[in-house]
Amino acid sequence: MIQKATFGAGCFWGVEASFQKIKGVTSTTVGYMGGKTKNPTYEQVCTDKTGHAEVIQITYDPLIVSYEKLLEIFWSIHDPTQLNRQGPDIGTQYRSVIFYHSEEQKYIAEQSKQKQILRHKKEIVTEITPAKEFYLAEEYHQKYLEKNRLFSCKK
Hints:
Blueprint: E1 3-9, H1 12-20, E2 25-33, H2 42-45, E3 53-60, H3 67-76, E4 85-86, E5 89-90, E6 96-100, H4 103-120, E7 127-130, E8 135-136, H5 144-147
Parallel strand pairs: 6-7
Antiparallel strand pairs: 1-3, 1-6, 2-3, 2-8, 4-5
Helix pairs in contact: 3-4
């Protein structure tokens, strides 16, 4: 049975690119989650006033790739010790966050976060919170790096 995973780890373009190539991931979609504004636009999210994070919503086959493996990738592609930023991108929309879709995902995410505390030997600011309504980002954001033949988000 196909399942969902939703992560925020900075600019969603690079996050999406990291998960697209994982065997067992059946689809990736970028969007916004975690805020109060309904149907936000990218411009609104960038004001830092909507409360939304840039996220990737993944559908995956747990018989091929586990949620634990997806979390390993999540931790490896960003710095979970940076509050409301990743590299040059600053703002709450770039926060590190795991939106869980079940109690099992919540438990696995919390265990995984504990391992990161030991690994980094400092505070992990990643939020672990229930999934909320997912708002699809504008079409030009979907598969952005692939469509524009870019290898990373670096400007």
